[in-house]
């Protein structure tokens, strides 16, 4: 499987699965599906009734990717950025998620479906910064 390939059918199926997962989490637990909030709830150190479903959610994100990597079924684009750049990027994503009171999944999937103006502003900001970053990395910095 090559990550960079686009197929409208697989994109549609993936979007439907993400939407269904968001609806099921809301119906079952009354919670918004945003990884920043889910992971933040695990990292706050408190053991509460939400811990088990949060762990299951995070495992559901990690186990399939790790399994595909182990069997050799996942080949992504070769990126040679180095550990310091990857750590800085991860820190900035986490910092931005906290600063924006949510992550792209929470705002983009759940917030927009609830017609949240704050989520609309966040998603527009995400998309603009993403576009500027791609433009700068490809045209200004010679990537």
UniProtKB/TrEMBL annotation:
InterPro entries: Sulf_transp_TsuA/YedE. It is found in: Cell inner membrane. Coiled coil: none annotated. It is a multi-pass membrane protein. Its main location: membrane. The chain crosses the membrane at residues 12-43, 55-75, 81-99, 120-141. Keywords: Cell inner membrane, Cell membrane, Membrane, Transmembrane, Transmembrane helix, Transport. The keyword Cell cycle does not apply. Belongs to the TsuA/YedE (TC 9.B.102) family. This is YeeE/YedE family protein. The lineage of its organism: Bacteria, Pseudomonadati, Pseudomonadota, Alphaproteobacteria, Rhodospirillales.
